[in-house]
Design a protein that fits this description.
Shape: elongated
CATH topology of one domain: FAD/NAD(P)-binding domain
InterPro entries: FAD/NAD-bd_sf, FAD/NAD-binding_dom, Ferredoxin-NADP_redctase_2, Pyr_nucl-diS_OxRdtase_2_AS, Thioredox_Rdtase
GO molecular function: thioredoxin-disulfide reductase (NADPH) activity
CATH superfamily of one domain: FAD/NAD(P)-binding domain
Oligomer: single chain
Family: Belongs to the class-II pyridine nucleotide-disulfide oxidoreductase family.
Keywords: Disulfide bond, FAD, Flavoprotein, NADP, Oxidoreductase, Redox-active center
Organism: Brassica campestris (Field mustard)
Number of strands: 26
Bound molecules: flavin-adenine dinucleotide
Radius of gyration: 34 Å
């Protein structure tokens, strides 16, 4: 078993999956895509691999074979760096993050998931319904009236729709544009379609209904071209079999969305489709998105699947940006490598530090003294705070320590140092708002992070030497330094041209009181 980490993992291989992959890859989210291996008996590439000409996908004025179209989708995903595995995801674990997806040979730990596993149009099986020799699948028999209805072989010919629901009514109505006549064959004595849909279909003069009917055989036409010529229809009540001339047969008996592998971990509707928040691709699990036919029982077209694939990639991208900031808010950034944080020279404007999860999510780090010497803090756990408490403990007194010039510690027995206030108020990894104690500010860049990585041992030893420095400091010097630092702080507050925040105002007044 191999384990991979991915920002985005996409499951599926139709237009939805590949559009999501193209967008995610171009957004540098380096997606992993599982295209499945005969998942739900469909080849990688999805439903379009089961059809011949696709005439309604924009960009192909002369039409394109379904199989060629999906090959182009795949090539485009790969071109932008999507990593494609021809494996079926058979298990997921969305109970905690990172999400886990399992195939027979690998596991992916993903921050976001896009489910685009499509749906399978249900088909009936009887002699002549198949794809091989003697079968008329794609040669008169189809499962998509909207996709295939306009084909020349159906023009002005008798057509048949099998089904009794809304889709059957809608598809029959649609086919009346092309066929000379449309029969709806249903095996029960009444339809389950809504009254309005039934009314619309049954009032169409080109539609004729055959109830209690079941197609038992399809046969070819007299031309010998191997296209559909007619059907044998059995009356399920009296068993009589009649002949019906038809050049087209369309199954409208529903679709089976490919959601079993989700094992109920995402909300599904009563027909098994993934429920998405209207206008988005968000599912009931934050960070899991759904696109294409797996969440769409209305449009079910390649171009709509592609459209929602695009939406899912954009939704995932926004989500990743958001969790970046949430993790900062919650201080949950997982990063063992220390960041190096530099003081700002001006010390008046807070600068931003980027965390590791999302470089677009800024956080602000405050220092307690002015210095041009770098010092290190850990991202993630509030290491500044832990340095302080470590220091206070070793000191054996209630005195608190602060980061002093040059990155050494000093202690103060009377008032809380600014760094302590800031560190306690905003432990590293917690975003602070601009304006809260702007006197001392630190800055880091990703390049600096990389350039100044230190090991834990080095950090420990730095800490120890800082502690020793601390002990060596003369109490009076410390008080003096502290006073100076507070004067500087007051000066910077008094020097600010913009209106002070409430906290700054309080701090300023407190400092003035102390000075007086
Ligand atoms: C016969 C037919 C003809 C059609 N003709 C047209 C047409 O001319 N024009 C048009 O616009 N639309 C047409 N459609 C509809 C169109 O094919 C679908 O709307 C579209 O393919 C849906 O795309 P999708 O990305 O949602 O998923 P799908 O195309 O359904 O692909 C999903 C893929 O995910 C894979 N998968 C499933 N489960 C897993 C798993 N657990 N792990 C990994 N992979 C998995 C499946 O194997 C499948 O390959 C036709 C459909 C059919 C059936």
């Amino acid at each position: 078993m191999e384990t991979h980490k991915a920002k985005v993992c996409i499951v599926g291989s139709g237009p939805a999956a590949h559009t999501a992959a193209i967008y995610a890859a171009r957004a540098e989210l380096t997606p992993i895509l599982f295209e499945g291996w005969m998942a739900n008996d469909i080849a990688p590439g999805g439903q379009l691999t089961t059809t011949t000409d696709v005439e309604n996908f924009p960009g192909f004025p002369d039409g394109i074979l379904g199989i060629d179209l999906v090959a182009k989708f795949r090539k485009q995903s790969e071109r932008f760096g999507a990593k494609i595995f021809t494996e079926t995801v058979n298990k997921v674990d969305f109970s905690s993050k990172p999400f886990k997806l399992f195939t027979n040979t690998r596991t992916v730990l993903a921050e976001a998931v896009i489910v685009s596993t499509g749906a399978v149009a249900k088909r009936l099986s009887f002699p002549g319904s198949g794809e091989g020799a003697g079968g008329f699948w794609n040669r008169g028999i189809s499962a998509c009236a909207v996709c295939d209805g306009a084909a020349p072989i159906f023009r002005d010919k008798p057509l048949v729709v099998i089904g009794g629901g809304d889709s059957a009514m809608e598809e029959a109505n649609f086919l009346t544009r092309y066929g000379s006549k449309v029969y709806i064959i249903h095996r029960r004595d009444k339809f389950r379609a809504s009254k309005i849909m039934q009314k619309r279909a049954l009032s169409n003069p080109k539609i004729e209904v055959i109830l209690n009917g079941s197609v038992v055989e399809a046969y070819g036409d007299e031309s010998g071209k191997g296209v559909l010529g007619g059907l044998k229809v059995k009356n399920v009540v009296n068993g009589a079999v009649s002949d019906l001339k038809a050049s087209g047969l369309f199954f409208a008996i529903g679709h089976e969305p490919a959601t079993k592998f989700l094992d109920g971990q995402v909300e599904l509707d009563e027909d098994g489709y993934v429920v998405t928040k209207p206008g988005t691709t968000k599912t009931s699990v934050a960070g899991v998105f759904a696109a294409g036919d797996v969440q769409d029982k209305k449009y079910r077209q390649a171009v709509t699947a592609a459209g929602t694939g695009c939406m899912a990639a954009l939704d995932a991208e926004h989500y990743l940006q958001e969790i970046g900031s949430q993790e900062v808010e919650l201080g949950q950034v997982v990063r063992a490598t220390p960041l190096t944080v530099y003081n700002e020279v001006s010390r008046s404007t807070p600068v931003t530090v980027y965390n590791e999860v999302s470089t677009s999510t800024p956080l602000t780090v405050y220092n307690g003294a002015s210095t041009s010497t770098p010092f290190t803090v850990n991202n993630g756990e509030s290491t500044v705070r832990s340095y302080i408490s470590k220091c206070s403990k070793s000191n054996g007194s209630s005195k608190r320590a602060k980061l002093d010039e040059g990155g050494t510690f000093s202690s103060s027995s009377n008032t809380k140092s600014n760094v302590e206030e800031q560190a306690m108020a905003h432990p590293i990894g917690v975003k602070s708002s601009k304006g809260e104690g702007e006197n001392l500010v630190t800055k880091a860049t990703n390049e600096e992070n990389v350039a100044t990585k230190t090991t834990n041992d080095e950090r420990e030893s730095n800490s120890r030497s800082r502690l020793e420095n601390l002990w060596a400091l003369n109490e009076r010097d410390i008080a003096e330094r502290n006073k100076l630092s507070r004067i500087e702080l007051l000066r910077s507050l008094l020097g600010k041209t913009e209106k002070l925040s409430e906290k700054e105002e309080t701090l300023k007044n407190k400092l003035i009181d102390e000075m007086l």
